[in-house]
Amino acid sequence: MPEIRKDPVFGQWVIIASERGRRPNEFALPPEAASTVVCPFCPGREDQTPPTVCQCSGSDGKWKIRVVSNKFPALTPEPPPRCSETGPYQSEEGLGIHEVIIETPVHDLHMDRMDEADLAAVLSTYVERIRELKKDPRIKYVMIFKNHGRNAGASLSHPHSQLVGMPMVPTRLSQEIEGAAKYMSEKGSCVYCDMAAAELEGGRRLILREGPFVAIAPYASRFSFETWIMPVAHASHFEDIPPADIPALAATLKEVLSRLNSSVEGLAYNLIIHTTPVHAPQAGHYHWHIEIMPKLAHVAGFEWGTGFYINTVSPEEAAETLRSGKKHKG
Amino acid sequence: MPEIRKDPVFGQWVIIASERGRRPNEFALPPEAASTVVCPFCPGREDQTPPTVCQCSGSDGKWKIRVVSNKFPALTPEPPPRCSETGPYQSEEGLGIHEVIIETPVHDLHMDRMDEADLAAVLSTYVERIRELKKDPRIKYVMIFKNHGRNAGASLSHPHSQLVGMPMVPTRLSQEIEGAAKYMSEKGSCVYCDMAAAELEGGRRLILREGPFVAIAPYASRFSFETWIMPVAHASHFEDIPPADIPALAATLKEVLSRLNSSVEGLAYNLIIHTTPVHAPQAGHYHWHIEIMPKLAHVAGFEWGTGFYINTVSPEEAAETLRSGKKHKG
Q1: Is A300 within 8 Å of A274 (Cβ atoms)?
Q2: Closest Cα in chain A to B21
Q3: CA–CA separation, A231 vs A245, rounded Å?
Q4: What residue spans define the domains of chain A?
Q5: Are strands A309-311 and A13-16 parallel, antiparallel or unpaired?
Q6: Are A274 and A290 in contact (CB under 8 A)?
Q7: Quick one: which of A78, A82, A149, A138 has its CA closest to A111?
């Protein structure tokens, strides 16, 4: 029997319909194909990317993490924003920063198999880039995200993340922050703190706890095996994470990705850090977190037309699978 | 230079970034693979679907269009809706109607190649099903949509559409209707009427006009080659379309899909009818229309994280291609 769940923050409806997972499919997602593109992110091909913005080097002097401008940016630093309006239409020039963070020199060393210390260095790079970009008062929001695998929209497989600094707070984030503020005004608490507490007590959607961090399957999961990682204690800005906590975050992220990889055949996912706009003060109602959205199926007309999502694996079932590390039977 | 455009109805931002279309891609969308599933929608296999809800028959007595309940529904008619709330969470049972409209007995006769009269009969079936379902006062909204091709989330290739009757107005629609009402209160006119008029006059995003209908590439196209079909004269409810106009709508839809098929290699798309909630009175601010969203690329982390879209083919370029019927160089 399908169940309709409401996302407590965003107000979005999700339909949990496990029976639909058993329908026949002529079009199962194909496995990832071997690449024919010469990887521009591998060592020795540094001339194929824009110049290095910054890098971390090992004791041998070679780079371990490289940050470069995106060669095909969605947004560019020049010129300044300009609004024009004709008839019913309104536009701005695409001011912003679009960078690529090459996480490792090793072509196929993904986060689930990286050394925890190396993964911690990637997370520290995220923090440093946000702190650097927030010096520009025109940049209102910095989003860090990662597309892993073709079915999640990746165009290159070499492990990399992306950073986009934007001149406005993106729609999704402002709606999320408004939803969290509304929850705070009604219930007097942070909705993310309440979710973390509910899962740590009840446990049906708890995946794991690692020191100051918790990983849960969110109640209104839009995607099968959707997983959120968040600090248990309230914190509004990702870039203010205590440096001493970064190794635990790396350990949590590595373990979550490793279990997802074991449970989901041919795992592809989007990973997104949701955080408070960089110039906003410390906020009691909004709580940074990492959303990992596996892409087992294509989003189809129903979702595009309604704004609802259909998820064929309940978050309780996903969490149980990920707690035990067993294989999901699709 | 990327340009940020604001959707005049929904308020959503879209980044038009043609340069990004030229980035290297290890993971080009694979072609549709041959099916291994025995098609349950072909004649002679009627026992593999739930019973026929209604059908149109030819002069030979055989069915030409069949409507059946969805065997794997996202929503089901029983039991009545019920709200429960525990901690931060809220749910309802998935009350609703989910039907499949099998458009033709011919396994591979897609809309772009159907006889116009047969396509008109499919559109008339849409109208009749909405009129039938709106008799149930619990059904607030009826959405008709179609997923064509794997990359658009189809699970079976035999030409079929889907109908979902829902106990609430979906989020996407209520936001769209609110956006249109806001435009009306600010400018005193219907935003869709204004868009149709602007394109019919200016022509840069006009694809074609066929009698009472116009096809345009919307100003803030989220997807490459996104196409909207709408009546030129104001009309709020799709199911109130004059029967005499249905053949022209069929001709417009067939021509648009045929040109998309010629221009876009391996076309996959979602088609969605956007209309006013069934029990709402005639509305001056909301205008029914059909949105066709080709899926040339996967939606990735940037879109999921921001709620913005990145489109690498400007709607002006898409409209020019579709006006001339030439091939798009990807």
Answers
A1: no
A2: A72
A3: 9
A4: 49-77+91-324
A5: parallel
A6: yes
A7: A149
What is the phi-psi region of residue A13: left when phi exceeds 0, alpha when psi lies from -120 to 50, beta otherwise? Answer: beta
- CB distance from B148 to chain A under 8 Å? no
Would you say residue B84 has pLDDT above 90?
Answer: no
Chain A residues with CB under 8 Å of B298 CB are: 150-153, 295
CB distance B88–A187 less than 8 Å? yes
pLDDT at B26 over 80: no
Taking alpha carbons only, the member of B122, B145, B139 closest to residue B67 is: B122
Most confident segment among A172-186, A260-274, B189-203, B234-248: B234-248
Q: Which tokens hold the place of A119?
A: 């993964």
The amino acid at A199: E
| Chain B contact for A10 (CB, 8 A cutoff) | no
The DSSP-derived string for A46-104 is GGGSSPEEEEEE-TTS-EEEEEEE-SS-SSBS-S----EEETTEEEEE-B-EEEEEE--
Q: Which of A6, A94, A271 sits opposite B3 (nearest CB)?
A: A94
Q: Domain A49-77+91-324 has what CATH class? A: alpha beta
Q: Are B53 and B68 in contact (CB under 8 A)?
A: yes
Write out the two tokens for A30.
């194909």
A172 → closest Cβ in B17, B307, B310: B307
Measured at the CA of A252, the angle between CA A145 and CA A309, to 5 degrees, comes to 50
What Rg, from alpha-carbon coordinates, does chain B have? 20
- Starting at the edge strand found earlier in the chain, the sheet holding A289-294 runs A52-57, A63-69, A97-102, A160-166, A141-148, A269-274, A289-294, A227-231, A213-216, A206-210
DSSP symbol at B29: P
Distance from CA of A329 to the nearest CA of B (A): 18
**Active site amino acids of B:** 160
Q: Where are the beta strands (DSSP E) in B167-288?
A: 206-210, 213-216, 227-231, 269-274
**Virtual torsion, Cα B63, B66, B71, B73, nearest 10 deg:** 180
Q: How far apart are CA A48 and CA B34, in angstroms?
A: 38
**Is the minimum CB–CB distance between B32 and chain A shorter than 8 Å?**
yes
Write down the residue that tokens 């083919």 correspond to.
B313
Cis peptide bond N-terminal to B79, omega within 30: yes
Q: Quick: pLDDT tens for B132-170.
A: 999 999 899 999 999 999 888 888 999 999 999 988 888
Q: Kindly state whether A108 is in contact with chain B, defined as any CB-CB distance less than 8 angstroms.
A: no
Chain B residues inside the 8 Å CB shell of A35 = 26
Biggest CA pair distance of chain A: 60
Cβ atoms of residues A273 and A266 within 8 Å:
no
Fold of B3-21+43-74+93-324: HIT family, subunit A (3.30.428)
Check if the beta carbon of residue A237 is closer than 8 Å to that of residue A288: yes
Cβ contact, residue pair B26, A35, below 8 Å: yes
Regions of chain A with pLDDT less than 50: 80
Chain-chain contact of B170 with A75 (C-beta, under 8 angstroms): no
- Rounded to the nearest angstrom, the minimum Cα separation between A211 and chain B is 24
B31 Cβ under 8 Å from any chain A Cβ: no
